[in-house]
Description:
This protein has one domain (57-94, 104-279). The protein is of the alpha+beta class. 29% of the residues lie in helices and 35% in strands. It has a six-stranded mixed sheet with strand order 2-1-6-5-4-9, with no helix packed on it. It has a six-stranded mixed sheet with strand order 3-10-11-12-7-8. It is globular, with a radius of gyration of 34 Å.
Amino acid sequence: MRKLLLGFFLLVFLISCGNKKTKIDPFATLTDMVDSVSIRKTDSLHQQAKEEPKPIEADELFDDFIFNYASDNALQKQRTIFPLPYYNGESPTKIEEKFWKHDYLFTNQSYYTLLFDKEDDMDMVGDTTLKSVQVEWIYLKTRMVKKYYFERRKGMWKLEAINLRHIEEKENEDFVSFYARFATDSVYQSRHLSDPLQFITIDPDDEFSILETTLDVNQWYAFRPVLPVDKLSNINYGQQNEDNSNTKILKVNGIGNGYSNIFYFRRRGGEWELYKYEDTSI
């Protein structure tokens, strides 16, 4: 009898201890593992989406984009394709991102210049359908040109290559040679002015009106602005800028200062001359 009771109490004790064990739902555990993997995967995709460059409002107009590109270091790296093809004459190479130095282009000076063959081409500046644009530096003393090739893909402007080389024939070589001397030699300049010189400016008595008049050589020297002498910038929106063109327009735009000058040149009898000058600075 005592053995029977002892066995009974032992059985009750074991059952009691078993009831205290934590119950484990294998399906719940599997669900937690799947959810954990899903969360990590979602976080990873979110991080990739965060790092992927996206079009910005400035991408619509190239001029807006290029000022953002030149002034924002993070955006510049995002919008430059690395390794970047760099052509120095006949020596092609590539620039790795770690060796890239921020390029301010023309934004670290008070103005930039544009070149056109005819007035109608100046309307290209506001074209929002452009897909390819080149930003250029024209070095007057060395006769070198440095071109930055920008392409718009999937709505985003990106720098795809840089090319540094000598100015070739049919690439404004004749005009560049003329302008380099015109800007630095006063005697030469006076011999290459149309007399009288057409002059367009804001009416001093009414800032909302344009005054069209003329200047003689002496008046030109009283009104003439400082001309760029070392290098010219240019944004090629698609204008031809052909060397055999008989007209050239040099537009000088101030950066954040309201400065605006336009110089109109023409070739007569094989000689270039400035025939019209426009100053509408605010």
